[in-house]
Specification:
By secondary structure, the protein is of the alpha/beta class.
Length: about 300
């Protein structure tokens, strides 16, 4: 079958061994497969090609394509894979901004998950905004928890938007944040990612699910990593809900560099490198004692440090 050289395209959907690509910002989808030898090029990840990757492809006479080259990534977000035969899974690449969707309850998003996601974004140079969803369900207790959460993460340097996909609260603000960008929406199952995306664009009809009353956890409604165009401008990567976020290739000596509030004062530590655990005259420990760095974030850091040490 005759081949024609295609343009550089962006991978917009990955389903098993098949990919959809488009020459963004145009939305002209081409179904592609991967040239055989590329499948084993990257042995460290479960997926050598990720949504958001820029690729070259040859267009066949029947309108399908063969991906022949992956271009270098400007960034990517990665986590430890549940597939024990490989090291990690790349969630998406070449992202302009990541939106971490968080809920205080129904289901509760644990701080450990939040901090691991944020650390990974910092490590791979991805701007991130925290989106607090389901504010329409807040009780007085939830509001108190939310104010504490906002204080911790705003002081750490993160932007936070409170929204409700159900009532439309601050949806216009979120929509404006997505304009002209390739945005990643990620979070636990059940936090309302697909519902939020539907509320951003009424022409989208992403499948949504209910929360399990027994476990207060969501069920997977998104099964593939997929890009959706917004009629207001920009593109959103919708991801399957995840239960855990394991760190990948994170040295214990560099971990504190990915906590922005710590990185700002690391140079004030007497010893270098400093793990900020037992060393004297540690600027980080002193800042925690003074309340300048949240004890919650410091405890998260210690937990990650212990976890990474086990695998070294």
């Amino acid at each position: 079958m005759e081949k024609f050289k295609g343009d550089i395209a962006t991978v917009v959907k990955h389903t098993g061994s098949h990919y959809l690509v488009s020459n963004l910002p145009d939305w002209n989808l081409v179904s592609c497969v991967v040239k055989g030898k590329m499948r084993i090029k990257d042995l460290h990840t479960t997926n050598p090609i990720a949504v958001g990757d820029h690729v070259d492809y040859d267009l066949l006479e029947d309108g399908t394509g063969i991906i022949t080259k992956i271009h270098p990534r400007s960034n990517y977000i990665i986590r430890k894979s549940t597939n024990l035969s490989r090291r990690a899974h790349i969630i998406a690449a070449n992202i302009d901004v990541a939106f971490l969707i968080v809920t205080m309850d129904f289901p509760e998003t644990k701080r450990a998950f939040v901090d691991r996601f944020l650390v990974t974004c910092e490590a791979y140079k991805i701007p991130v905004t925290i989106v607090l969803n389901k504010v329409d369900l807040y009780t007085d207790d939830h509001r108190e928890m939310t104010e504490h959460f906002k204080d911790v993460y705003s002081r750490a340097g993160y932007s936070i938007i409170e929204v409700s996909g159900k009532t439309g609260h601050n949806i216009d603000q979120l929509r404006n944040e997505c304009k002209g960008k390739l945005s990643l929406f990620s979070g636990l199952s059940g936090v309302g990612k697909s519902s939020l995306i539907n509320s951003l664009d009424s022409t989208l009809r992403l499948r949504t699910g209910k929360i399990s009353d027994y476990h207060l956890q969501g069920k997977h409604t998104t099964t593939f990593y997929e890009v959706h165009p917004l009629s207001s401008g920009g593109f959103i990567i919708d991801t399957p809900g995840i239960k855990g976020f394991g760190l990948v290739e994170m040295g214990i000596e560099e971990l504190s560099h990915y906590f922005p509030e710590m990185f700002k004062i690391i140079d004030k530590c007497k010893f270098a490198p400093c793990t900020h655990t037992h060393e004297p005259d540690c600027a980080i420990k002193e800042a925690v004692e003074k309340g300048e760095i949240s004890p919650d974030r410091y405890l998260s850091y210690l937990g990650m440090l212990e976890e990474e040490s086990k695998y070294r």
